[in-house]
Amino acid sequence: MKTLLSVKNLNVSFGNQKILEDVSFEVEKGESLAIVGPNGAGKTILFKALLGLTPFSGEIKWQPNVKIGYVPQKIDFDRYLPMSLGDFLLAKARILNLPAEIVEEKLNIVGFSQETLKTGLGNLSFGQFQKALIVFALIGDPDVLLLDEATLGVDAPYETYIYEIIRRLEKERALTTLLISHEVEIVYRYTTRVLCLNRKMICIGPPQEALNEETLKSLYKEATVYHHRH
Question: Domain 1-66+178-230 is classified in which CATH homologous superfamily?
């Protein structure tokens, strides 16, 4: 397998406050890596460092010419903005010099109808908007998808539907995924490895091995520990 991403001795500080300290790991092509940890552990900052959106020291090395798609936890926008879903998605296609037909192709992946393109962004349900963000990220056919709690606030059936879409893309297109999640069951079901983070890297490995009771207690001091059964 090819190494898609190599991170060595990654450090991020804001002033005198260390947010991430000596984080090192690798991601292979086609892998699905979960990043778990408590609030304030530095998970989103890690993603921002990987995307070049925040200063850091250490080394972040992506495979040459890799294409990255990013699905943020949320986007703050004016719900009264006169912009349709079609306007939103076509804007990215134009930036990448892609034909408009590419948007219709991506809509089918998440189960949107063509009529949905006419819907105002402010009229989409929360779950629909999260799917729209996935479509946005997929335009340009990324090699790797970063998902920052992309289903936060989505009800359980819709959450399962979205992760099944992502799993299908991993199989059909050899898509590599990095996802942030607080849900242990999602990590067990949809990822091949997990990185446990609390400013420093606590552990990394297959979920069934890494997410043991001792590790979970060190990450979430007063959290309920869930045991996974095969």
Answer: P-loop containing nucleotide triphosphate hydrolases (3.40.50.300)
